Amino acid sequence: MSSRINTILIVGGTTGIGEQLARRFYGLGKKVIITGRRQSGLAALAQELNGLETRQFDITNFATLPTHAAGILKDFPNLDAVLINAGIQKSFSFFDPTSIAPGEVEREMAANLIAPTLLVQAFAPHLLSLATKGTPATLFVTSSTLGLIPMGLWPTYSVTKAGVHALALTLRQQITFAGEEAKKKFNVVEIVPPYVDTGLDKEHRDATNAAQGEHAFPPMPLQEYIDQFFKALEETEKDGSLKKEIGVGTGALAIQTWRDSFGKVYEQWGMAT
User: Fold this and answer.
1) What single DSSP character describes residue 77?
2) Prediction pTM value
3) Which are the contacts of 176, defined by CB distance < 8 A and separation ≥ 6?
4) SS3 8
5) 68 contacts 55 by C-beta, under 8 angstroms
6) How far apart are CA 243 and CA 268, in angstroms?
7) DSSP string covering 149-197, please?
8) Which residue, 150, 76, 65, is CA-closest to 110?
9) At 242, is the secondary structure helix, strand, or coil?
């Protein structure tokens, strides 16, 4: 699938999975644009990776998000892939008001679900326009194994990632109404990572490990995940079509379980998934 991609925007590309994906796509010779909230992180990567493009903005500033998206499309009219990856994770109990600071639930929901939905709204028409004209277009959205197998230690994160999973499904269904060319050329890919060692959970890792006790399991090393991601990126479905999900580790198990259960229901209804 990487051969379909020439210019890719990675939203949330300065740390963790987003940064390593940006580095790998850059290494494959792709034109890469990354976004982030902190100029220092963007500048450091741009200095290291000659030709990397950066844009600084906060995806939870919803008032300015359309302007930033329009600016990117103006500067990169040939943008053919968008990867929405930014997010935060909190661990707390609904039954203990002291376990999370005021406003943090809203902040997590804004970053993990509302912002990705608005970003899809901002970039999907452009990608669809490319696809209907015969240019391959790809939209990646990052959910999580926790979006399919929610766990109470990460309540809001699980809820928001379930929403991103639904976002990918509904977008694929809408593409079917856009004509045969769009169906062939526009690919929506849900990225479903397992527990990866990115620092996303650094503020609560010790506490959640203690809460899980003997059932706690270690995160997958980040580079191992990236290697497996790019291996899966080049694979196809059994019928030869492009991948709809890139699941690694428990993410692959979660996706396969969903496809063997709820996916069959959609097939009976004659609906795309």
Assistant:
1) T
2) 0.96
3) 183, 272
4) strand
5) yes
6) 21
7) S--TTSHHHHHHHHHHHHHHHHHHHHHGGG-HHHHHHEEEEEEE--SB-
8) 65
9) strand
Torsion-angle region of residue 71: left (phi > 0), alpha (psi -120 to 50) or beta?
Answer: alpha
66-121, pLDDT tens digit by residue?
Answer: 999 999 999 999 999 999 997 899 999 999 999 999 999 999 999 999 999 999 99
**CATH code of the domain made up of 2-269:** 3.40.50.720
188-223 b/e with 16+ CB inside 10 Å = b? bbbbbbbbbbbebbeebeeeeeeeeeeeeeebbebe
Strands (E), the chain: 7-11, 31-36, 53-56, 81-84, 137-142, 186-192, 245-247
The full length of the chain comes to 273
* Per-residue model confidence as pLDDT tens digits over 191-230: 999 999 998 988 888 888 888 988 888 999 999 999 999 9
